[in-house]
Structure formats: structure tokens, C-alpha cells
Design brief:
single chain; 3 helices; about 0% strand
């Protein structure tokens, strides 16, 4: 299962001042690639769920902290 979108998912620096290796979309791509290699099914929450905290209505009703549904 891929992670959901989150607030600040494309930030280059995390809250502790450490540079992120890649944006969240890079991790999503890696999960899908490895699962495809081994023929594992993938629940693609990142691309298919429609839950994105960048939409204020979604954030208010479903992800108030910008991360957890």
C-alpha cells in the first residue's frame, strides 16, 4: 500500500533541518516498482484515494493534521 498525500510532501528539508532524500512521490514509485517486480498487488492510495490535504475541505474533514486520515 502506498502512503497518502501529506502536507509538505515535496519539501526538501524536514522539520529537523535534515535534507530529504527524495519527495514522497519517489517512495511511491519505488513501492510500485518493487511490487511489480515480484507480482505483488498494490493499493495505490497516493494516486487513487482522492484524499489530499492540499484541498482545504478534505484537510478539514478527513486529515486535520495533514497526515493521518
Amino acid at each position: 500500500m502506498t502512503p497518502l498525500h501529506r502536507t509538505g510532501e515535496n519539501n526538501l528539508w524536514n522539520s529537523r533541518g535534515i535534507r530529504n532524500v527524495c519527495p514522497l512521490s519517489g517512495y511511491v514509485d519505488a513501492i510500485k516498482k518493487i511490487c511489480s517486480k515480484f507480482a505483488f498487488p498494490v493499493i495505490d492510495c497516493y494516486s487513487m484515494s482522492g484524499i489530499n490535504p492540499n484541498n482545504e475541505i478534505i484537510k478539514t474533514h478527513y486529515m486535520p493534521d495533514g497526515l493521518h486520515p
